[in-house]
Amino acid sequence: MPTSDRINSVADARRLARRVLPRVIFDYVDGGAEDEVTMGENERAFREISFRPRMALRTPEPGLEATVLGIPLALPVLLAPCGLVRLMHPDGATGVARAARRAGTVSILSAVAGSAPEDLSGEPGPRWFQLYAATREMAGTLIKRATDSGFEGLMVTVDTPALGKRERDIRNGVPTPLRLDPRSAIQLGSQVFARPGWAYRMARSGIAFRRRANPAPAMPGAGKVAMTASPFSWDDVEWIRERWTGPLLVKGVLSGEDAAAAAGAGADAVVVSNHGGRQLEGAPATVRVLPEVVDAVGSRIEVLVDGGIRRGGDVVKALALGARAVLIGRPYLYGLAACGQSGVEKVLEVLRSEMTRTMILLGCGSASDLDGSWLRG
Ligand SMILES: Cc1cc2nc3c(=O)[nH]c(=O)nc-3n(C[C@H](O)[C@H](O)[C@H](O)COP(=O)(O)O)c2cc1C
To answer: What is the rounded average pLDDT of the residues 211-217?
Structure first.
């Protein structure tokens, strides 16, 4: 397994992940919907934004701290909820949570992470849970389990009324949604055996392959409902609000109107997100939508953003456009795949040091001073 000192950028982590993972799993992480235009736009849109630096200011080591929903963060980069993280590395969701904690930030456990909320109940907080549910009954069960397992924040993802068409998965012969069982494992055998290190680590970690690969056992509330869709309405979000006393975030808004609807339904924060370009192909790049959402609800609730963040400078741009913090998905999954928890830690460390360097070069002494005046119009 590679060591984390080989990761000096998110692109390094991606290269290592590609080398370590069976193709079917790398493509599951790396791919997006249809022609992957929205996915590519997320990254491109950040590159199109230029800074407006100030010189000769002798900026001291800049402060990167932020507060999100009352939680002080040393780094304003949260780890987004991602499905099937245990397929990347046996450290799985526990390793991700521990890496987040070490970096002074928060990770959000996906309802389909392959780890149950109870699996993380012993981990120190803060811990947040992301909800998908096909029915209110299922939502109620999962909310209760998240509460009983000590999760403090709940993130409701509203952009998955159907699963996006992920063509790499279709080409690779992966059933939708991705699930591996002995039969599909045999079908995909040549890809798996081309990555003996990964296969060895998975086998040695001693958790049954089926349990690791499939979200359903972590979701007993699911019954026989296939988790291919999570069709929440704003009424459902209100219904959830009545049952959840902690911070509530709505993830997946792409307009000022929907951000206002989320606030109206009782959300404390919204995440401007297109699911990393994995859902609606043709959805706009998130950083282009961010100013509209900040204008619409920024004075009432907190606004976060994810999608396409690959450099510390991208985080700085998002904060300058009014985000309170950002989330990353693939960057930490690449790190996890490459070298487990230490890979996630290293990706966060790389983003922290890139952010710091960017802020010094920009002449900005604190993340809380970032606003539109640091960007070219
Ligand atoms: C492999 C993978 C699985 C994901 N699973 C979920 C999920 O279970 N729930 C969810 O709300 N978002 C999920 N997402 C979306 C992420 O939470 C996040 O919005 C996205 O990855 C951000 O874009 P980025 O990967 O460019 O950073 C997933 C993303 C990836 C790459």
So the answer is: 48
Is the confidence at residue 202, as pLDDT, over 90? no
SS3 content of the chain, % helix, strand, coil (to 5): 50, 10, 40
CA 79 / ligand 1 centre spacing (Å): 9
Q: What is the pLDDT of residue 193?
A: 85
Burial class (CB in 10 A: 0-12, 13-18, 19+), 204: exposed
Is residue 31 lining ligand 1, measured as CB closer than 6 Å?
no
Per residue in 2-52, pLDDT (tens digit) is 899 999 999 999 999 999 999 999 999 999 999 999 999 999 999 999 999
For residues 286 and 305, give the distance between their C-alpha atoms in angstroms, rounded to a whole number.
Answer: 7
What is the enclosing helix (H) or strand (E) of 303? strand 302-306
Dihedral over Cα of 189, 194, 196, 201: its sign? negative
The predicted model scores a pTM of: 0.95
* Residue whose CA lies nearest to ligand 1 atom number 20: 276
DSSP string, 304-315: EEESS--SHHHH
CB of 336 within 6 A of ligand 1: the answer is: no
Atom number in ligand 1 closest to CA 155:
11
**Is there an atom of ligand 1 within 6 Å of 253 CB?**
no
Record the tokens describing residue 192, joined without a space.
Answer: 């798996």
Ligand 1 atom with the smallest distance to the CA of 112 is 8
Q: Is the pLDDT of residue 283 over 90?
A: yes
Q: Compute, in angstroms, the gap from residue 55 CA to the centroid of ligand 1.
A: 37
What domains, with CATH codes, occur in the chain? Answer: 4-374 (3.20.20.70)
pLDDT number for residue 298: 98
Please work out whether the CB of residue 81 comes within 6 Å of at least one atom of ligand 1. yes
The per-residue pLDDT for range 47-66, each reduced to its tens digit, is 999 999 999 998 889 999 99
Question: Which residues form the catalytic set?
Answer: 275
Ligand 1 site, residue 325, Cβ cutoff 6 A:
no
